[in-house]
Structures are given as structure tokens and as C-alpha cells.
Amino acid sequence: IQAASGRTQWETALPGALTARPALHEDGAYFGTDDGHVLRADVTSGRTRWDVTVDAEVTEPVVLDDDLVLVVTGNDSLYALERETGEPAWVHKHPLPRAITLRGQAKPLVIAVATPAGPKRRVLMGHASGRLTILERDTGTVVDELALSGDDSFGDLDADPFVQHGKIVVASASRGVIALDERTHAEVWRAPEDGIVRLARGGNHMVVAAGPSK
Question: Is residue 49 within 8 Å of residue 40, measured between CB atoms?
């Protein structure tokens, strides 16, 4: 739609329903559908540049990071697709807990970490199992995996993580808000609270949404 006039510039049919916010970069719009398609379309013409099928529905916004499009699916898989072509750079698959139908996931978070070998870019992905996987951004190699929810059968980490004051902040549905050291992944502090669904940060504070009326 033209921003100045509100006039429809183009309209196109999609392979499935679009439930997540599209992501825009330069002349490209990137989005996933509930039929398991990930697409790049030209925002000026509506022409589809590429259309890739993944292993389940895509209900969360894709994340653009330079040359990669990061996509989380309903099977708790993470796809890294080449932004220009849609070709898979790598895929990380994580098993879902038994009897869980996943309908909401955290967006993957890309961070830069200082290491003895120099700065490294890594991807953080929270899972329905209550585990946090840390991957090499360029290869998908697992750097670390943390069981943040202990032995809980459903300690879902579905709130979007963020970095604040050198700490990775995540939320477990059963164990509360957890802050981890950015480099060592050691736990710095934990604030118990059940049923956390969203986190927001601002300055020295954060706000937690934790179920009905809280």
C-alpha cells in the first residue's frame, strides 16, 4: 500500500495464511506462512523472488541478519536461509517435548561475543523443552546447550530473549526470568515467576508479562 495515499499498489495470493509480521529490508519483504512456506517478495512489484518450504508452520516473524534469514518453525527447527537466493545455509532441529503442540516460539537472537579467537557472532534459540541452544551464526554448529528449566517437562522459553548490560536475559514458563553471562553462559541471577509470556527492556529496568492480570 502506498504510504502517502493509502492506494493499493499490488496484492498477491500466498501459499497459506500470513500470521506473523513481515520483515522488510531494502526492496524485499520476507515472511512465512502457516503452510510452511518462507518467501521473499519485491515490495515495489509483488513479484516473488523465492519460495522455500520448511518442515512446519511459521507463526513468528523471521529475523534478518545481514546475508541470512533466520526462521523458526512449529517443529522447533531453526532454518538459516541465504537472503538473496533462499538456499539453506544450515538447519538446526531440536526435538519437541512429548504431547506438546507448539504454537508460539521465541525469535532467535543474534549477538556478537568476544572470544580468544576474536569476535564471534552467535545465535540464541529458546525451546519448548526449556533448553537454550547457542549456535555459531555462520555454520549452525552448536556451541552450548543449557537446561534452564531443569527437569520440568514443559519449561517453554517462548519469550523473545535480549541482551542488557552484558547479560543474556531469557524467560522460562516454569522457572522465571534468568540472566546469563554473555561470554561464559553462567547464570548471574534468577527471578522466579510462573507463566512468563513476554519480556520488555528499557534502560536499567525490564517488564515481565506473566499470564492473566500480571
Answer: yes
